[in-house]
Amino acid sequence: MSRQISSLLAIAAVCVTLAPAPAFAQAPKEKPVDCSQVKCLALTFDDGPGKYAGTLLDTLKKYDAKATFFLEGQYVNSRPKYVKRMVAEGHELGNHSYSHPDFTKSDAATIRSEIQKTQDAVKKASGVEPKLLRPPYGLVDLQVSDIATEFGMPMILWTAGSEDWASKNVDKIQEQTLKVAKPNGIILMHDWVKQTVDGMPALIKTLQRKGYHLVTVSDVIKDEKLEPGDAFPLPAGWEN
Ligand SMILES: [Zn+2]
């Protein structure tokens, strides 16, 4: 090895040593919940981070509940501090496009760009990249599935909705969610609906009293062995 190269290597080694610690806080390690042994439920919040994400995060923290946020890239860019907090507090992040177009009516280039811009925004805000895709409106077709495969992501839909966006009523959101909650269910909610966030302490307390562990989507799908491009749960008319 020439002296020039070895001194360059020495400089490189010093640079590596002096590299600053990662700026993003890591979620504390907690013992994993085994959803094949206990009752689990995954609450999922779409289209955010919404205006009320901070209040929602406070509530989730207070009751030691985890959630999954399917984020819209445009709001990741306008509210990055919530995204950073979601990761730091142990929640899961998913990709819900950049500006919420119907992917089944979009061309391939648009879909790729919508997904990539959101991956980039989330990475910039939080240091992590989503591993799950929820296409806008939960609408999927073969083209969307192929592109999800390219990105290495399964497509996560929901087993039931809270219908929060339609009722915008605290009691109705609670009633509907309790009606459709089931072990390993995936519930669709929105953190831009004020009534969802307002009613969350009471809803979480009731779910926990019924024995539910509120966990991330990855916790409830662990045994499904999903491949990139798979949709879960399967939309009507789809087969494995
Ligand atoms: Zn949406």
Indicate the structural class.
alpha/beta
CATH superfamily: Glycoside hydrolase/deacetylase
Number of helices: 10
> Strand count, sense and closure of the main sheet?
6 strands, parallel
Number of domains: 1
| The level-1 CATH class | Alpha Beta
GO cellular component, one term: membrane
Organism: Nonomuraea phyllanthi
Protein name: Polysaccharide deacetylase family protein
Keywords: Hydrolase, Metal-binding
Question: How are the SSEs ordered, and which strands pair?
Answer:
Blueprint: H1 3-18, E1 40-48, H2 53-62, E2 68-71, H3 73-78, H4 80-88, E3 92-95, H5 108-126, H6 142-150, E4 155-156, E5 160-161, H7 164-167, H8 170-180, E6 185-190, H9 194-209, E7 213-215, H10 217-220, E8 231-232
Parallel strand pairs: 1-2, 1-6, 1-7, 2-3, 4-8, 5-6
The chain binds zinc ion.
Short description:
The protein is α/β, with parallel strands linked by helices and 240 residues long.
Walk me through the structure:
- The chain has 240 residues and is an alpha/beta fold.
- It has one domain (39-226): TIM Barrel (Alpha-Beta Barrel).
- 43% of the residues lie in helices and 13% in strands.
- The protein has ten helices and eight strands.
- The protein has helices spanning 3-18, 53-62, 73-78, 80-88, 108-126, 142-150, 164-167, 170-180, 194-209, 217-220, and strands at residues 40-48, 68-71, 92-95, 155-156, 160-161, 185-190, 213-215, 231-232.
- Strands 1, 2, 3, 5, 6 and 7 form a six-stranded parallel beta sheet that branches. The chain has a two-stranded parallel ribbon with strand order 4-8.
- Strand 1 (40-48), helix 2 (53-62) and strand 2 form a beta-alpha-beta unit.
- The chain starts with a helix and ends in an 8-residue tail after the last strand.
- The model is unreliable at 5-18 (pLDDT under 50).
- It binds zinc ion.
- This is Polysaccharide deacetylase family protein.
- One of its GO terms (biological process) is carbohydrate metabolic process.
- Keywords: Hydrolase, Metal-binding.
- GO terms for molecular function: hydrolase activity, acting on carbon-nitrogen (but not peptide) bonds; metal ion binding.
- Pfam families: Polysacc_deac_1 (PF01522).
